[in-house]
Amino acid sequence: MESRPLRLIGLLILAAATLAGRPPSLKGEMRFGVEAAQQGLWREAIFRWEKILKVHPDNAHLHNNLAVAYESLGQFDRARQEYEEARRLDPDNREIRDNYESFLQLSRSLPETGAAGSPTPTPAGGP
Amino acid sequence: MPGHPALVAALALTAAAACGEALSGPLRVTLTVPMPARVDTSGIRKILVTRFLVDKELPDVDLDKEMVSLLRREMRKKTDLEILNVEPPPLPEQPLADLLANTGFWRRLAESHGADLVISGKVSFTVADRSGYVQQDAISPVTGQRVRRTVFAEREGFTLDLSLFFLRGTTGQRLYEDHFTGQNTLSGQGNDRLTALFSLFEQFEDDVLGIVEPRARTAQRILFTD
After folding, report:
1. How far off is chain A from B224, nearest CA to CA, in Å?
2. Which of A49, B43, B119, B179 has its CA 20 to 30 A from that of B5?
3. Per residue of chain B (226 residues), what is the pLDDT tens digit?
4. Chain A residues with CB inside 8 Å of B10's CB?
5. How far apart are CA A15 and CA A28, in angstroms?
């Protein structure tokens, strides 16, 4: 009875080891990142997608996913860069366009920023 | 081992990736996005919500009093700031632009109540008759079939228009301003005015509170799985 969970863990480790021996595949890393994102592990997702982006720098889907991940962490400047890159690479993609437009709408609630993650207020009047 | 959630999660993810299971195509996800406050509230602790200029109001609603009380209540309940509970003094009778430029008034007001930030604004609350003919689907009691019929529906449309001004206590200068509009159509006539006012404010309450405090906003996005 006790050995059953241990066997399962062993299988998982074996799967991990098997994967570790392979070069990362675009599909595998994309899905791994999405699985992580679904569990709220956005930094893990970013790590996966950034890694595979080095091999596939012109993949619009990857840039889109990274944009969403950075947005979820509140890194709006990075998110904007990634969305714009995704739009540049695949201007007709409806999902990317919808994401970007929703992002822009949300961005209107942001203060004017000098740099990513360091918001400063919008002064309404000069001193 | 079971006490190490990070390892368990990583292994589960590895297994899912290895199986290449169910995930395919675009996938909708819900994000919780951390939104920074729109005003730099460092050094701001005490807030005075003072009177509002009323543009248009309904006869049976004291709009100035209701807005002040509503804003104070929600800010007290949903932020960590100290919302002063003092009788708001009357505003000088000046055109809005002059009033906002009257830094001496705002500074003295803040000083006299020990406020770091003063919030004022201009508000308008109106109702319009939106009654008219609408199409309704119904089951005919004679034939039992679905039929479409045109009926007259009484409706009221409420509009809340709110401009908010945030003034720094130490200088009396305007730090930030924003504008919000909410609309709501309700069935029938003679709907409760205060209920309509509160429900309209709810439409943009998060945005109002987000001016002075970081808030989390939920958003839907699409991820690609391949």
Report:
1. 6
2. A49
3. 444 555 555 555 555 545 444 567 899 999 999 999 988 888 899 999 999 999 988 888 899 999 999 999 999 999 999 999 998 888 999 899 999 999 999 999 999 999 999 999 999 999 999 899 988 888 888 888 998 889 899 999 999 999 999 999 999 999 999 999 999 999 999 899 999 999 999 999 988 999 999 988 899 999 999 8
4. 16, 44
5. 13
Around B50, how many Cα atoms within 13 Å sit in the side-chain half-sphere?
A: 26
| Separation between Cα atoms, residue B165 and residue B52, nearest integer Å | 10
Euclidean distance between CA atoms B177 and B97, whole angstroms: 13
Q: Quick one: closest CA in B to A6, which residue?
A: B1
Q: Do B200 and B158 touch, CB atoms closer than 8 A? A: yes
Locate B16 and state its tokens.
Answer: 């899912």
**Residue ranges of A 38-77 with Cβ closer than 8 A to chain B:** 38-39, 41, 44, 61-62, 64-65, 68, 71-74
